[in-house]
Amino acid sequence: KERGQGRVLGEYFCGVCKLWDNTAGKGEHATKSIYHCPYCNVCRVGKGLGIDYKHCMKCNCCVELKKGLTHKCINQALEGRCPICIESLRTSTKPLKALACAHVMHDECYKRYRKDRYTCPICNKSMDDMSEYFSRLDQAANASQMDAMFANTRSRILCNDCGSKSIVQYRLMHHKCPRRACGSYNTRVVETMVLRPGAPEPTS
Ligand SMILES: [Zn+2]
Ligand SMILES: [Zn+2]
Ligand SMILES: [Zn+2]
Ligand SMILES: [Zn+2]
Ligand SMILES: [Zn+2]
Ligand SMILES: [Zn+2]
């Protein structure tokens, strides 16, 4: 008798891939489940298409379905590849992570990369909701005294999150985007300038 697809008593067998996995549902893998994507033609870790993953025909890979996360199709040179390890996401069987900016990478690559960075390697936007971290930077900025020698120094910054340019008080690091709806610290200094004493604040 041939086994079909699906889980049999914590065991998973895929008739297409001839993949056999008996770790699912056991011990540390208690929550692990596997499904076969007929479009990717591989078995992936996940509950299934339409449950926690969907296959995007345009990107030709499986993308995570999560509340509040809308998949935007990847339009990039690295199309369909993990930006960290460059492996093709389509044929990769590892779990994938869709970022807030909709770029996709391996979950394990994300976890490793996220340890020291919070910006997307492709578009530089914040990969997660950073509001907690940003409010800690707000507190630190409010608590620290500005060096009087920089009183007339300004930074022209570009916000990686909202894309707006602004001129703000110079700081050694962590320039905050002044747009009220944004407030991100994910900014880049494009120019540093010193104002003549008494000169009006530059607006652009
Ligand atoms: Zn399979
Ligand atoms: Zn797929
Ligand atoms: Zn897509
Ligand atoms: Zn990767
Ligand atoms: Zn991105
Ligand atoms: Zn901004």
TrEMBL record:
CTCHY-type domain mapped to chain residues: 9-81
Q: Which SUPFAM superfamilies match?
A: RING/U-box, Zinc hairpin stack
One Pfam family this sequence matches = zf-RING_2
According to its UniProt entry, the protein's GO biological process terms are: protein ubiquitination; ubiquitin-dependent protein catabolic process
Q: Which residues form the RING-type domain?
A: 82-124
Give any Gene Ontology cellular component: nucleus
Q: Could you tell me the keywords of this UniProt record?
A: Metal-binding, Zinc, Zinc-finger
Task: Select a single GO molecular function from the record's annotations and give it.
Answer: ubiquitin protein ligase activity
Q: What is this protein called?
A: RING-type E3 ubiquitin transferase
